[in-house]
Write a structure and sequence with these properties.
With 245 residues, this protein is of the alpha/beta class. It contains eight helices and seven strands; from the N terminus they run E-H-E-H-E-H-E-H-E-H-E-H-E-H-H. Helix 1 links the parallel strand 1 and strand 2. Helix 1 crosses helix 6 and helix 4 runs parallel beside helix 5. The radius of gyration is 17 Å and the shape is globular. The protein starts with 6 loop residues before the first strand and ends with a helix. The model has no long low-confidence stretch (mean pLDDT 97). The structure holds NADP nicotinamide-adenine-dinucleotide phosphate. The site of NADP nicotinamide-adenine-dinucleotide phosphate (NAP) has 32 residues, from helix 1 and strand 2.
């Protein structure tokens, strides 16, 4: 992928992996638009990287996704890359206990509905752009779940599956469909302090930029690179190791 002179929308681009990519892409001469729910976080991102354009938007809501698509394609008609990065990870009650369905539903809406619907919305616009791409951020947990995060892992498995189909269906459109598969990376995903033992964010983001520049269509990093390439027997072993309790 050519990593300059693009116009890029990154959902959830004001913090964590999205922001690390937004900064790198911006520094390479791309026009980068980020969106997120928290106005104050968007302002912090803009203060660190003033070249970014920001839009407050909740991609878990269908009406916000449609408004985002309409606004972005009107204000940035050359937008050629959509990065579906926004995601949430809730720590929910064990499935043996009563469930708060709304929390599960929000994970499904944010992690699956949003990237699927935004992809649908943007395809016809992207088809007419130079070097277009849809980039989905899934997870190593798409391949082997941690059972106490059953819904989160299922959303990422669904996103991986959707990405394979999307890539195949768009194979003659010129739109590249790319899947970034992070391992555990040190961000505030799920709340502060829950992801402090993972890969350093800068090292991971640098790796992503290298793989994008190489034209890789699907890649992980460290543990998630092993998971994505694992055999079924490896995955069974991985599942057993990751779910000892
Ligand atoms: N960190 C990891 O270990 C890890 C591992 C595998 C995969 N991932 C995936 O990587 C992606 C980025 O996560 P991260 O680790 O960088 O966590 P993060 O720092 O919490 O970033 C997530 C971003 O998504 C935004 N977001 C969440 N819900 C949104 C919504 N409904 N509408 C718009 N924006 C929303 C958040 O901003 P607001 O709260 O302001 O909306 C935040 O900026 C996610 O898809 C995550 O599942 C992360």
């Amino acid at each position: 992928m050519n990593l300059s002179k693009n116009t890029v929308l990154i959902t959830g681009g004001a913090s964590g992996i999205g922001f690390a990519l937004a900064q790198r892409l911006s520094h390479l001469g791309n026009h980068v638009v980020i969106c997120g729910r928290r106005k104050e976080q968007l302002e912090i991102a803009k203060s660190v990287c003033p070249e970014l354009d920001t839009i407050q938007c909740d991609v878990s809501k269908e009406s916000d996704r449609v408004s985002l698509f309409e606004r972005v394609t009107k204000e940035y008609p050359k937008l050629n890359i959509l990065i579906n990065n926004a995601g949430i990870q809730n720590r929910l009650a064990p499935l043996t206990e009563p469930q708060n369905w709304q929390s599960h539903r929000l994970e499904l809406a944010t992690n699956v509905e949003a990237p699927m619907h935004l992809s649908h919305l943007f395809i016809s616009h992207l088809k007419s752009q130079a070097s277009p791409a849809i980039v989905n951020v899934s997870s190593g947990l798409a391949f082997s779940p941690i059972s106490f995060m059953a819904t989160y892992c299922a959303t990422k498995a669904a996103l991986h599956s959707f990405t394979l189909s999307l890539r195949h269906q768009l194979r003659n459109t010129g739109i590249s469909v790319i899947e970034i598969i992070p391992p555990s990376v040190n961000t505030d995903l799920g709340g502060k302090g829950l992801h402090d033992d993972g890969a350093p964010l800068d090292a991971f983001a640098d790796h992503v930029m290298t793989k994008l520049a190489e034209g890789s269509l699907e890649f992980g990093y460290g543990f998630s690179e092993k998971s994505r390439l694992a055999s079924r027997a490896d995955i069974d072993q991985l599942f057993a190791n990751m779910n000892r309790n």
